[in-house]
Write a structure and sequence with these properties.
The protein contains 6 helices and 11 strands. The protein is of the alpha+beta class. A hairpin with a 2-residue loop joins strand 3 and strand 4. The mean pLDDT is 97.
């Protein structure tokens, strides 16, 4: 399937025609991670995001009870416009629904957080291969030993990272290119030996899928918007709804608008 705009992709998702990870689709348009929390947890998450800007660069915050976007897209519906959600209750993942119509509450506040998929087209335009797209799988993501700052009810929790392999020359290019996109995680947090950041087996991602790493390549790691999901497992809000890793919200803003 080909989608010329974020709106076209959202419509296909809303109709449940499209249900794949969104990397590479409507590639010129911004993608975002989703977090939904009750009002009495929302300020603490806003504070958590402010103290951990690398994994949680906020692109939009909804009004209490409002499920329509205003800025990243015009009147998109947070309840229906992602193809797979995750529902956590008291730190336990309980379901992965295709929409939230039956779950939405008047006290919910949504957050849309920048996603590294938004700088991928810039990497492709520079001639870099994205292995997860080449192999038609979800990007690999890992828990690390890098700890986020606590905030209110949100306790200290590990940073989650996404990984893309490059040879040394292209790894330097990737650093230079992504540094211009701080609103979608910006430059990498680590290059090279994954064990330094607590990843013991690069071939077994905690989220997403394994990709092949060639002999002349090193893994390059970016902060990831799945980090709040790890925080939910530790801090145990009574309910927290997110995107399923790799299944992002796609907006109407072009990625080029986020470049410094």
């Amino acid at each position: 399937m080909t989608f010329n705009t974020g709106e076209e992709l959202r419509l296909a998702i809303r109709k449940e025609i499209f249900d794949k990870p969104t990397s590479g689709y409507a590639s010129e348009y911004v993608q975002a991670n989703l977090v939904i929390l009750p009002k009495d947890w929302a300020y603490d998450f806003l504070l958590f995001s402010q103290r951990n800007k690398k994994p949680c660069p906020i692109l939009e915050v909804g009004e209490v009870g409002d499920y329509n976007t205003r800025f990243i897209a015009e009147n998109a519906d947070i309840r229906t416009d992602l193809s797979k959600y995750r529902v956590y209750e008291n730190g336990q993942l309980i379901s992965e629904p295709k929409n939230l119509k039956d779950l939405w509450r008047d006290d919910f506040v949504f957050f849309l957080i920048g996603c590294s998929f938004s700088f991928e087209q810039a990497l492709i335009n520079a001639g870099l291969e994205l292995r997860h797209q080449t192999e038609n799988v979800n990007v690999p993501m890992y828990n690390t030993n890098i700890m986020c700052n606590s905030a209110g009810k949100f306790k200290t929790s590990p940073l989650v990272v996404s990984m893309r392999p490059f040879n040394h020359k292209n790894a330097i290019k990737a650093v230079e290119i992504t540094s211009d996109y701080p609103d979608v995680h910006g430059s990498p947090v680590h290059l090279g030996d994954p064990k330094i950041i607590g990843i013991n087996d690069i071939n077994t991602p905690d989220y997403g899928d394994r990709v092949n790493i060639k002999d002349d390549e090193i893994p390059v790691f970016w902060a990831c918007g799945v980090t709040p999901q790890k925080a939910a497992l530790i801090s145990k809000p009574p309910i927290m709804i997110t995107h399923s890793p790799g299944y992002m919200f796609v907006g109407d803003i072009k990625n080029s608008e986020l470049k410094l």
